[in-house]
TrEMBL record:
This is Uncharacterized protein. The chain crosses the membrane at residues 21-48. It comes from Agromyces kandeliae. Keywords: Membrane, Transmembrane, Transmembrane helix. It comes from the Bacteria. The lineage of its organism: Bacteria, Bacillati, Actinomycetota, Actinomycetes, Micrococcales.
């Protein structure tokens, strides 16, 4: 027995607006800055060790 189901309509490709792409890029850059700052602070904490608590 064969099924005679109709094919679903073809989906159109939706283009993203330039504002959406700019917002996405901005969020990714800010996330990268936050990660970089966290990495720098982690390295500084390891390098300084206990001396960080002795600073005036």
């Amino acid at each position: 027995m064969t099924s005679n189901t109709p094919k679903p309509p073809a989906q159109t490709i939706r283009e993203e607006s330039k504002a959406t792409l700019f917002g996405t890029a901005l969020v990714l850059v800010m996330a990268g800055l936050v990660l970089a700052a966290g990495a720098i602070l982690s390295v500084a904490a390891v390098v300084l060790g206990d001396t960080a608590l002795q600073l005036p």
